Amino acid sequence: MNVAVNWQGVYPALLTPFTADDELDLDLFEKNLIAQVQAGVKGFIIGGSLGEASTLTRPEKVALLERALKVGDGRIPTLVNIAEQSTREAIACAQEAEANGADGLMLLPPMRYYADARETVAFFTAVAQSTSLPIMLYNNPFDYKIAITIPMLEELSALPNIQAIKESSRDITNIIRVRNAFGDRFKLLGGVDTLALESIVLGADGWVGGLVDAFPEETVVLYDLAVAGKIEEARAIYSWFMPLLELDIHPKLVQNIKLAATLTGIGSEYVRAPRLPLIGDERARVLGIIESALATRPVLTPA
Q: Which residues participate in the annotated binding site?
């Protein structure tokens, strides 16, 4: 039985922990998942950019899905990220995720090939029609060079299982544009950590977070305060959080956030090549940001 996805609250884009031998560290993955549940997240997303999707095999993605479903225990929906190069492979991955119990999908536009609007709509349509799972489209032209525009959404709105958009364009006024065009047809989730509070204030339904992998409690409390309209309290946490959140908008966001999760006890620094762990001055700089934040960690008051 699938868990309903309501597209509200905090959804961590989960890290994929590895061992020193480059195998999945499923026990550490579970430890992080439990911390997320205890903090109050509303969903899991596995195999995204932070999850090192491009280096994972399909059996590994299934193993991560199975462990997340175990921890979610019928309470927390688990979404599988689909980020493939071909439409055929994207359909196969979507159907495999559904067959193995996924509750929903996050769907990126075609990877590597710079598809135009017609091709991108056809890609999304083909995947959506191949599965009954609810889908969140990932709008990130900053990194992936393909924008999901209002005219494209007009076509895609005919597909009932395309339900949400992860808005990572870094232009948060897109939240207003989509609301003006479609009302509540699509749920909107902010996807840029350094614009999280602004996105929620503008009406985003949720937050797909990165630093939540290391700081789940702070992330959830910040979101809850913002939704409750306690903006001054939210801003105080946001100000403390910002140097950490900036670690998410960097080419080495995976290494940065894995280091942060290591220091908070729910992750490790192991990454999969071609990525390599941070070293030298670069590691010292990131470590200094994390240690400074830990030394001034706020006392949290739930919203």
A: 208
